[in-house]
Automatic annotation (TrEMBL):
One of its GO terms (biological process) is mitochondrion organization. Residues 329-573 form the Clu domain. It is found in: Cytoplasm. This is Clustered mitochondria protein homolog. Residues 641-667 have a biased composition (Acidic residues). InterPro entries: CLU-central, CLU_dom, CLU_N, CLU_prot, GSKIP_dom, GSKIP_dom_sf, TPR-like_helical_dom_sf, TPR_rpt. It comes from Clathrospora elynae. GO terms for cellular component: cytoplasm. Residues 1260-1277 have a biased composition (Low complexity). Residues 1300-1314 have a biased composition (Basic residues). SUPFAM superfamilies: Hypothetical protein c14orf129, hspc210, TPR-like. Belongs to the CLU family. mRNA-binding protein involved in proper cytoplasmic distribution of mitochondria.
């Protein structure tokens, strides 16, 4: 909402805040000041003289910044809003905007800078107009082609508002969790904010006048543009934008006279903002009210995203909702002109040149690297944005192809200097590999290949900017144009300079590519190997024959077609693929996998490489030191299991090898990291080259803990796989054949490692709860990918998880749901591909009805407009014939085909329809109207019944929408269109409000920011807190500088840093970062993304740790509500969260409620871990304590006895936990006896009953630490219970204790959450 409204363009109008003024509006200088008590030398205050009120102001500046940053800060300060066209002077000398402040001669503390207003030119006048429109809230809503409805939405500011607006009931104050229902299904209303307050209106309209642009004779007099303004007082003024500023002219709608009015009506000002203040008496007060209205919002939630594409919510408000108003605004259509001028030349960019010249920038000094990475990040963001917009136009048929005579799939397009083609096999390149399916996979893999090469950052090796967009069922590839790729070559000259040309018939091997591809292959573990062309001539290649090198006409060397950086997954292809036979011949049923592009993942190659290295080190050790053999073996074995577990449970690490490297490194170098740069360089070299020696030294260090042992020389170790085996190469000489056979064996071994080692271990760890349990399709696939497991193994995982164990059952349900969603996606895309845009919503709704609405209507009807059909004779309307049965058959076929899994009788689980709808909507880019969809007959009947008494139905939908018309002060909703009677079914065409593109892009990560974060982590691990904190702060600054604040990588950094700082007791900073992590994650990943839920849970813990338990519970509740939407109730990992909530309630003295939550947590735990597990025993122990706090002694004794029995059985009678529980049990039993006795006495009337309020009876003490300790034990292997004396608690239970404030252990199991 606000996000999309505040986004003028990608121009320099509304940039993200400058570095100097960070998003909270505090200057960073102020923060430094707080930290050190005095300002560093390069940060000081200067006075700025202004031409108008307030005539002077002070600003804190840093000499490391550019003058431009200072200008940006001035433009954003509330009392200097009106300036946009000015320069700064120091001692009468003009300062260049593009120099650093340190280069301004004589600039020191308390110097005076003068702000001098410049004459406007046409561009400045246009940009000033846009800026003022934004500022005064006159820019209406925008319908952006790329960003969907409410893109970049954040719920952070409104979470819990509906709670606080409820009138307080009499009696004790309720906690935020009071009416939480553990078993109810997820409620859609939690995905949208409540209706907003209307912003104050400052002006009725401002637009470019119909008299614009100025005629020639007036241009020479300095006229730049003409505007027309209608004030709140309903007066219309025509305004001339002139080089000297803006003035009211004598024109009217009928007559043209752009010269100034005579006094007293003459009004003139340099800034349009000042002129408006003079023209409209009410403007100042309403503008002030608007600024106050905007100030209520967290800045991060309304800032436009400039370095990332915002997340599109899949549930969006109805068109008539107050959240998405559509108001008249003439200037909306004029914005393209205001942003880029009449000629529109300012927006055309030579993307390729920009990409490559950025790559060539220096990267020796740290500040050079910061600048280079910052530019790279911004450039990729702009390119992804532009390429996606173009791809959408191509998909809708708005751009003419360069080759209109060819078949649709073979057509190519150029738009905005970006080259587009379809991800389909238009020209038969992939005929033998699987045709269109193979082409679709190849372009997807190509993007990841390009990203891998971009991350390696090899000097002088260039790639083209690549984006793949899935939109309306089509896959479109956008690439920056490599100079020379379209050049007609002379006869005998090849189109390609290295690699295969035209199929694999000719192989080119230009020697200049060898050193570049050698570095690439070394880093990606690709083996140098021979290949043969059609004449059986042998060529030694560094990379796969499919990877091509091209020398552009700009002399640069480009790597193209990077989809084969790893070998084929031989075991899969041999099992399920048949080479294509003659035309029309069908493939055997069990060997009909749709394509031959099944390759291994780079993470798997890496983990297999580590395995080989361990074997090598083991053998070397065995040779050199027989005596240490046994010890070494043990070490190796332990290291192998533990390091892999660690890397996976640390889910924030991007891929396995990264996190393991960091761990290995911390083991390897026990020396304190004092020199930041050496660390950075080392890490960079490591990432770039993955030097085998480095790693091996590390492995050696791990396998041999005692420092006096010799080091193993592993210069002899090399591991690389040949990516071209099993791809139709035929070696000629015996020597080559032998080598080839070895290569094949090696690749087979890697495939075997995946099947026999990686997948079973992952399933086992999920069963044991050693890794965070995935919540939805996205978190499941990222877990698989981190381990190097391809999605095609979902079927295999479902088979392995088909055991009675509850955690595995949960995993199987999730995997089956993911397979159905993906099968549906493939089938739906095939149907949508040839449906014209006006029918797309009807087709999507019909497909969803067949998938999820079969119970409501067994024969759903497609709601396509029959009157339009004759206009599209070539279109494919076959989707209308689909029924739920035929769709189910198609999806089962897709699952059998792609995942080799037979669903048998299982289908969509009842109660999980909402989760499947979400998965499907995210995969297809659907935005649905937000309401509780009815998936069953009962729900539909209830929905229809509740809708009848309501007002006339909007668009014929039942109005039992999830927003039950809250407060009436909201902006006027649009009138509903006349009622149309629609068939009774779950989804209607009007429910599909929009379809957004799903994007795969190749932007590299910032090595610099990650290195600083890693170094900070290590320093803290080695107990160097000062240095560690300094590095962490530096890494935070780098993340914000390089990526801009609103970026998924920054959300990740905020989360990690917040966690580290919280553990270092810096709660204030931790809390601030936890809030930011939530907002940035919501806006860049989605309001219900799994990471956003983790960010909310983390925020709850930090709020509680900072003493705001009530707020903490509001966030925890929101996270649990989201959890229900994306997973359903009872997620295995939610035990910990419910437990934390119970502990928080105990801290708030809400004993009864906290017991309810302990019991809920216990119920899931018994279900997931079994009745006799240690986790269950620990939770029983806590529940017993909570019952004791509630003075239910009998219940407490029973629970404690169950806990004791389990501990005794599992851990034995001598274990500390068992003994602890035993003594608790004895004491509780005594209390129970005395309590029973008291009750009896009371019943007999022996004791006069004392009101419990008077003297010192039950004084509710805060929660005992036990609860949280036990929570820690719940999910981790630390098996320990309360360390406090039992007597204290019993005294307290019996009423003698005094209040002891509790401190809760912060995070029960850090592994689970991060």
């Amino acid at each position: 909402m606000a996000a999309s409204n505040n986004d003028a363009s990608k121009s320099d109008v509304a940039k993200t805040p400058s570095k100097e003024q960070d998003v909270n509006g505090q200057t960073e200088a102020a923060e430094d000041d707080g930290a050190n008590g005095q300002l560093p030398d390069n940060i000081f205050q200067v006075n700025i003289k202004l031409p108008h009120e307030p005539f002077e102001m002070q600003m804190t500046i840093s000499t490391a910044e550019q003058v431009q940053d200072l200008r940006q800060s001035i433009i954003e300060m509330p009392h200097t809003f009106q300036y946009s066209c000015f320069h700064l002077e120091h001692e009468g000398q003009r300062i260049n905007d593009y120099v650093e402040l340190s280069e301004v001669t004589g600039l020191k503390a308390d110097s005076t800078l003068t702000l001098v207003e410049d004459p406007y030119n046409e561009k400045e006048a246009r940009l000033h107009t846009i800026r003022v429109r934004e500022l005064i809230g006159a820019a209406g809503d925008r319908t952006d082609a790329l960003h969907g409805i409410m893109a970049g939405l954040s719920l952070h500011d409104t979470v819990g508002l509906d709670q606080s607006t409820k009138p307080k009931e009499d009696g004790p104050e309720q906690s935020p969790l009071a009416d939480y229902d553990f078993k109810s299904p997820g409620a859609i209303k939690n995905l949208l904010p409540p209706p907003p307050e209307t912003a104050p209106k400052t002006i009725k309209a401002i637009a470019v006048s119909p008299w614009n642009p100025p005629p020639y004779h007036l241009r020479s007099k300095g006229h730049l543009l003409y505007l027309v303004v209608t004030t709140n007082e309903n007066e219309q003024h025509h305004i001339t934008g002139h080089v000297s500023g803006f003035y009211v002219n004598k024109s009217s709608n009928a007559t043209f006279d752009p010269f100034p009015r005579q006094a007293p009506k003459a009004k003139q000002a340099h800034s349009l903002l000042t002129l408006l203040e003079e023209l409209s008496p009410s403007f100042s007060s309403s503008f002030q009210a608007l600024l106050e209205h905007n100030a209520k919002k967290e800045l991060l939630t309304i800032f436009q995203l400039s370095n990332a594409i915002p997340a599109n919510p899949w549930m969006v408000p109805a068109p008539s909702s107050a959240l998405t108003p559509h108001q008249p605004d003439l200037a909306r259509t004029q914005e393209p002109y205001l942003i880029s001028g009449v000629e529109n030349t300012e927006t055309l960019r030579d993307w390729n040149e920009e990409f490559q010249s950025t790559r060539e920038m220096p990267k020796d000094a740290v500040h050079d690297r910061v600048f280079r990475e910052r530019l790279t990040s911004k450039l990729f963001a702009d390119y992804n944005d532009a390429a996606t917009r173009g791809a959408m136009l191509v998909a809708r048929g708005e751009i003419a192809p360069l080759n209109p005579t060819e078949a649709t799939d073979a057509q190519i397009f150029v738009y905005n200097n970006i080259f587009y083609s379809f991800g389909a096999d238009g020209v038969g390149t992939y005929g033998t590999e699987g045709g269109d399916e193979a082409a679709r996979v190849a372009v997807g893999k190509d993007v990841f290949g390009v990203r891998a090469v971009n991350n390696l950052d090899i000097p002088n090796l260039f790639t083209s900017g690549t984006v793949v967009v899935d939109y309306l069922g089509k896959r479109i590839v956008g690439q920056s144009i490599v100079p020379g790729i379209f050049k007609q070559r002379d006869p005998g000259e090849h189109q390609i300079d290295y690699g295969a040309v035209e199929g694999k018939e000719i192989v080119a091997d230009d020697k200049s590519f060898v050193p570049l591809f050698e570095q690439l292959s070394k880093a990606l573990r690709v083996k140098k190997h021979p290949v043969w062309d059609k004449d059986n001539v042998r060529h030694e290649l560094e990379a796969s024959v499919e990877t091509k090198g091209l020398i552009g006409t700009d002399g640069r060397r480009y790597a193209l077609d990077l989809y084969r950086l790893t070998p084929l997954d031989v075991s899969w292809i041999e099992a399920y693929w048949t080479e294509p036979g003659k035309e029309g011949e069908s493939k055997p049923k069990d060997k009909d996998y749709p394509h031959r592009m099944a390759t291994l993942r780079p993470e798997l190659v890496e983990s297999y490489g580590r395995l080989k290295l361990r074997e090598y080190v083991k053998n070397e050790l065995a040779k050199t030191a027989k005596k240490n053999e046994t010890a070494a073996k043990k070490e190796v074995k332990e290291e192998e299991s533990s390091s892999e577990e660690e890397s996976d449970s640390d889910e924030s690490s991007e891929s396995e090898e990264d996190s393991e490297d960091s761990e290995e490194e911390s083991d390897a170098e026990k020396k304190p990291k004092t020199k930041k740069l050496t660390k950075a360089e080392k890490k960079a070299e490591k990432k770039a080259g993955k030097k085998a020696e480095n790693e091996a030294a590390v492995e050696k260090k791990e396998t041999t803990e005692e420092p006096e042992q010799e080091r193993v020389d592993i210069s002899g170790f090399s591991f690389a796989l040949n990516p071209d085996v099993f791809s139709g190469q035929n070696p000629q000489s015996d020597e080559d054949k032998e080598e080839w056979a070895q290569d094949e064996a090696e690749v087979r071994a890697a495939c075997e490692h995946l099947l026999s080692e990686v997948i079973p271990r992952m399933v086992q760890e999920l069963k044991d709860g050693e890794v965070g349990f995935p919540m939805d399709g996205q978190s499941l696939s990222s877990l698989l990918h981190k381990r190097g497991v391809n999605i095609r193994y979902l079927g295999k995982i479902a088979e392995l998880a088909d055991k009675p164990e509850p955690r595995l059952q949960a995993l199987k349900r999730l995997v089956v749901q993911e397979m159905i969603a993906r099968g549906f996606k493939h089938f739906a895309n095939s149907k949508l591909r040839n449906v014209p845009a006006p029918f797309a919503a009807a087709a999507a709704a019909h497909l969803l009805n067949c998938l999820l609405g079969a119970e409501v209507s067994a024969k759903p009807v497609a709601e396509s407009e029959s009157s339009l059909k004759p206009m599209y004779p070539e279109a494919d309307f076959s989707f209308e014939k689909l029924t739920p049965e035929s769709l189910k058959k198609e999806i089962l076929a897709q699952i059998a085909l792609r995942y080799r899994y037979d669903l048998g009788q299982s289908w969509i689980e009842s109660g999980k329809q909402l989760q499947l709808l979400r998965e499907v909507a995210l995969k297809l880019g659907l935005q649905l109207e937000s309401k509780q969809y009815a998936f069953t007959k009962e729900a539909f009947a209830n929905g229809a019944a509740s809708a009848t008494p309501a007002a006339p139905q909007t668009n014929g939908h039942s109005t039992s929408s999830s927003k039950k018309r809250k407060n009436k002060t909201t902006p006027p909703a649009r009138a509903a269109s006349p009622t149309v009677t629609l068939p009774q079914q779950t989804f209607h065409a009007d429910d599909i409000l929009n379809m957004v593109p799903v994007i795969k892009e190749a932007s590299p990560k910032s090595l610099l920011a990650e290195e600083a974060l890693e170094a900070g982590r290590m320093s803290i691990a080695q107990d160097q807190k000062e240095l560690g904190l300094e590095l962490l702060m530096e890494s935070l600054q780098l993340h914000e500088q390089i990526y801009g604040v609103l970026h998924p990588e920054v959300a990740k950094a905020y989360h990690t840093l917040s966690d580290l700082l919280f553990n270092l007791e810096d709660k204030v900073s931790a809390l601030e970062l936890a809030h930011k992590a939530v907002i940035v994650s919501e806006r860049t990943r989605g309001v219900d993304h799994a990471d956003t839920i983790l960010a909310y849970l983390h925020l709850g813990l930090v709020e509680h740790g900072s003493g705001n338990t009530k707020d903490a519970l509001v966030y925890v509740r929101h996270a649990l509500e989201l959890w229900k939407i994306i997973y359903g109730a009872d997620h295995p990992d939610s035990i910990t969260t419910l437990n934390n909530a119970a502990v928080m309630l105990q801290a708030m003295k809400q004993y009864h409620e906290s017991r309810v939550w302990f019991e809920a947590s216990l119920a899931i735990c018994e279900d997931v871990s079994g009745k006799n597990s240690i986790n269950t025993a620990t939770l029983l122990f806590q529940t017993a304590q909570s019952l004791a706090l509630e003075r239910d002694m009998r219940g407490a004794v029973n629970r404690m006895r169950e806990s004791y029995n389990i501990f005794k059985e599992v851990l034995g009678a001598e274990d500390r936990n068992t003994k602890e529980t035993e003594s608790w049990l004895e004491q509780l039993t005594q209390s129970a006896v005395s309590q029973a006795k008291q009750i009896n006495d009371m019943a007999k009337g022996r004791i006069r009953r004392v009101q419990l309020t008077g003297r010192d009876p039950l004084r509710p003490a805060a929660a005992t630490p036990s609860a949280s300790d036990a929570a820690a034990a719940t999910s981790s292997s630390q098996r320990r219970i309360d360390q406090r004396k039992i007597e204290d608690l019993l005294k307290y239970i019996e009423g003698d204790a005094h209040k002891t404030p509790s401190k809760k252990r912060t995070q029960t199991n850090p592994r689970k959450r991060t």
